[in-house]
Structures are given as C-alpha cells and as structure tokens.
Amino acid sequence: MTSAKPMIELKDVQKWYGDYHALRGINAEIRAGEFFSLLGPSGCGKTTLLRTIAGFEDITSGVVMIDGKSMEDVPANKRPTNMVFQSYAIFPHLSVEQNVGFGLRRDPRTAAEKQKAVDETLEMVGLKGYGKRAAHALSGGQRQRVALARALILKPKVLLLDEPLSALDKKMREHMQVELIKLQRQVGITFILVTHDQEEALVMSDRIAVMFEGEIAQLDDPETLYRRPKTRKVADFIGVMNFLPATILSEAGGKVEIEVQGFGRASIDADQVSNSHDGAAAVGFRPETLTILYEGQTPLDREAPGIIEEVVYYGDMTYYDVKLDGVTEPVRISMRNVFGREVLERGARTRVAWSSGALVLFR
Predict the structure, then answer these.
(1) What pTM was computed for the model?
(2) Contact 214/193 with Cβ under 8 angstroms?
(3) Strand order in the sheet with 331-336
(4) Is residue 168 a contact partner of residue 145, using CB atoms and an 8 Å limit?
(5) Which of 41, 71, 224, 321 has the CB geometry, 3.0–4.6 Å to 310, for a possible disulfide?
(6) Alpha-carbon span 291 to 297, nearest angstrom
(7) In angstroms, what CA-CA distances link 300 with 272, 303, 357?
(8) Structural domains of the chain ordered from first start
(9) Beta strands 215-220 and 242-252: pairing type?
(10) What pLDDT digit, counting tens, does each position of 275-327 carry?
C-alpha cells in the first residue's frame, strides 16, 4: 500500500556530461510503497536518473533525498537502495543460494541465520527448493527471480529495476509483470522501474513519469496518462492515438465548441483541453473509443462515414484503418472479436460511431 509520505524527493536535479545536458531540472516525489515507473524512449535520461538515485552517477546540481535524508556525498553502497540490472549479473559458477546470499558475506549473523534468510527469500520469489541448483541451469525467468531475491535479501527501502524484463520472451515477460506486481505488494517497499515499453509501464505502475530529452513531460497515474495526456507528444508515445485537425469555434461556460475534420462540430468540456502549444490545434482519441457500425446498428452519440483501407486480425482483436470522408489520413479503430461479429474486408464502406467525450483537444 502506498503512503503519502515521500520515500524519494528529487529537487531540480541537473546532470551534465561535458556539453550534453542529460537531466534538466527533474522535480518529483516518489511515495513510500509505490510502484513507480520511469518511461521514455532511448536516450531520454530515465536510466541516468535511476543511477543518480542509486548513487552510481553524481548529479551536477540539485538534491536527491531518500527517506528524508540528503544523499549528497553518500556512496552507492551506503544508500538504502538495491538494483536489479537488465543483465541480471548472476554469477554462473555459483549455485542459486550462493548467488542470493552473496550480499550477506559480511553480515554478522550466524551461518544458520543466513541460510534461513536465503530460504525465506527464495520462497518469496517462488524458487523454494532451487537453492542447490547451478545458476547456469536456470531459465530466463528463473534467473530474473534470482536477481530479485539477491536484491531483496538485503531489505532495501527502495528497489531499482533497470529494464529487468527486456531479455524475456513475450509470454514470460507478461507472466513476470504480474509476478513483480504481486511481489511488490507482498514486500511493501518502493519499486522504481525503468522501461521503454508503454504497455509494461501501464500494467505495472501506480504512477508513471514520462520523460523526453532529460525532462519529465508528465507524471500521473496510468489511467490519467492514457485518457488525458497533457501534450501531443505524450499522447503519441503512450499507446496508439489518432489525431484529426480541429478548429476552435468558441469557449464559454466551461465548454469548448470545435469543428473536427471528418467528424464535424462537437462540444467538449474544458478539462478535455490540453494547452500544450504543440502546434496547430488537433483532437486526439484512442482506437477503442471508436466503433464500427454494422448494418442495422445506430450510434449512441455521433457517426461518420468512411472506407476501410486496412484490416489487421490479431485473434482477440481486429484493427481497422478507416479513411473518413474528407480526411487525408486514416484513423485506427480496434474492435473486439466477439462471437458472431464479422471481420470486415478492405474497401468496404462503413460507418464509424464516435463520442465527443472521448476527444482530447491539443492546441
């Protein structure tokens, strides 16, 4: 369970590598017991920020605080953090229990007490009975669990995860996402995950900081990030977002009247407007907020005619690219393949149902 108390406070954190400005005034609070993600494309600064929290990188200026204490001049091995690396960094010549207990070598506890701690931690990560197995004989998912156990046995206040699932295949990755969520709830400590995978961040996180070019563009819970992105750049990065040109007609009484290419006139609430100054005004909307209307169906709100240009079948879902009348670029629509629902063909005329409540205006 998360706490309102911040476990980590970042205040105007700046990092320069010569002439390269890697972190540009990072300000954020990460709560105790929170599963927090740093999300962004390669080179955006997310791993650099994680390494500054861990103490592997010195900051140029600013403040990093952990559990109310400044980390200035505190080396990595003295900070209440531990890190799981992308490569897992497991010693192949050691057994599973030797890997997990490696950090206890200088611990004053007796050998029996250390063994008990190793056994309890292995059980926590679902590897009970694997202690004597050779580390090189493990699967990718098992090696990832060993790396987690080795980090957790030292009981850090913060666990730092640098893209720990990137080496796993899709099915194992999805399985380990759920296992990590359960494990974080079980141990109750703060997890900070670095990832470039938008879906992974949305699935696993209590809150997400989206980063571009050394700055946090938006910090919010997953649903707010997905449904109400603050900028067009964030909207375009998180999942799939359609965009259509729009013209603002009037603003009054908490309502904004707009003209949307392909849709026509719409009235939206003021909280659906993002003053992001990303360029010309446009509305964004997600593929699942549109619906293909079949013969005899009537829309609950509005409809727009168009032609299906592309059909991509995924088994549980079908994605349609539909060119609306009067629009140059097609919009992407996702439809769940429920029993009895026909998969339409390319070139078919169709009607698309839409709602003004699903629109986000970027201006």
Answers:
(1) 0.90
(2) no
(3) 291-293, 349-354, 302-313, 317-324, 331-336
(4) no
(5) 321
(6) 11
(7) 20, 9, 12
(8) 6-227 (3.40.50.300), 240-283 (no CATH), 286-355 (2.40.50.140)
(9) unpaired
(10) 877 678 999 999 999 999 998 888 778 999 999 999 999 999 999 999 999 99
